[in-house]
Design goal:
This protein has helices at about 5-20, 55-70, 80-85, 105-115, 145-155, 175-190, 210-220, 255-265, 270-285, and strands at about 30-35, 35-40, 55, 70-75, 95-100, 125, 135-140, 140, 160, 200, 225-235, 245-250. The relative contact order is 0.17. Strand 10, helix 7 (about 210-220) and strand 11 form a beta-alpha-beta unit. By secondary structure, it is α/β, with parallel strands linked by helices. The two termini are about 20 Å apart. The radius of gyration is 18 Å and the shape is globular.
């Protein structure tokens, strides 16, 4: 379904117009944006929904749109307090959380200048095996170094762990998965000299696997993680666990009509089909 762009068509041509006309009402929610790379690689072999890169000029336009529409950023670590006071998620507050997975160097080169110009902040999640004293490659893309991470932290960027080796945690033994989570958090904390209360789960989150979810949340609580983001679709609403936060994926297909529709809640409808697909995959033994 997603490969054919049906999500984009339904969002921009059906749900968003109905929303503007008042026929469809969107519940209040906080947008947590999920970026990966910010560069001009067109990813020709990857279908639109699954692309990981956002072109530099498009990212700049998205940041401009946020500022022009009165949005300000908050850190992911602030979200749990907002869940205790749901009025903070009202659309009139114009808040957004910006996150980046995988710790690519193009955050420093391309994303941060556009964000900093508007006074925005964000949280970058690091697969720590690929963050070193010298530049290392992950998926053939250069990653930040620890020195760059520390410099960006001084400028107001937040960081969190994204496991050590970026493997699919639910396909590992629980002992290995727990080690990936625990070690990566320790490494980021040691590098920055501060407690890190956030985490980002790599790959698709197996929300339908209750046993995994229970162990995952229990481990994060023991590690004193307060907010954890997933690949679950949608905006953050009252009643959602701060350890299972959904996000809105952003990449090169997110021209401003789709980007603005996502920000206004017109993409939230896709969370239902996603849940059904995950349950079917679990039932069929495929994750």
């Amino acid at each position: 379904m997603l490969d054919l762009g049906i999500d984009r068509i339904l969002t921009t041509r059906l749900v968003a117009p109905l929303q503007r006309a008042g026929v469809v009402r969107s519940r209040p929610g906080l947008s947590v944006l999920m970026y990966h790379g910010v560069n001009d690689d067109p990813e020709p072999e990857t279908q639109g929904y699954y692309r990981l890169n956002t072109p530099v000029s498009l990212f700049q336009r998205q940041m401009d749109w946020l500022q022009e529409n009165g949005f300000r950023t908050i850190g992911l670590h602030e979200v749990p307090a907002m869940l205790l006071s749901p009025s903070g998620m009202e659309p009139t507050n114009r808040l957004v959380v910006i996150t980046f997975d995988d710790g690519y160097k193009d955050f420093l080169q391309n994303a941060w200048p556009a964000m900093n110009r508007h006074g925005f902040t964000g949280t970058v999640f690091l697969p720590t095996a690929y963050i070193g004293n010298e530049t290392m490659l992950f998926r053939r893309q250069p990653c930040l170094t620890w020195a760059e991470v520390r410099d960006l932290r001084k400028e107001g960027v937040f960081f969190g762990p994204h496991t050590v080796t970026h493997r699919e945690l639910n396909r590992l033994s629980w002992e290995d998965a727990a080690e990936e989570i625990t070690r990566s958090k320790q490494q980021v904390e040691e590098a920055l000299g501060e407690a890190i209360p956030t985490f980002s789960h790599p790959y698709g989150f197996p929300a339908a696997d209750r046993s995994y979810v229970e162990r995952y949340c229990s481990l994060l609580e023991r590690l004193q993680v307060k907010a954890s983001v997933t690949t679950l679709l949608g905006r953050v609403r009252a009643g959602i666990s701060p350890l299972l936060l959904p996000r809105l994926p952003v990449n090169g297909i997110d021209a401003l009509p789709l980007f603005s529709a996502k920000m206004r809640g017109a993409y939230d409808w896709l969370s239902g089909p996603q849940r059904i697909m995950k349950r079917m995959r679990l039932f069929l033994g495929d994750g």
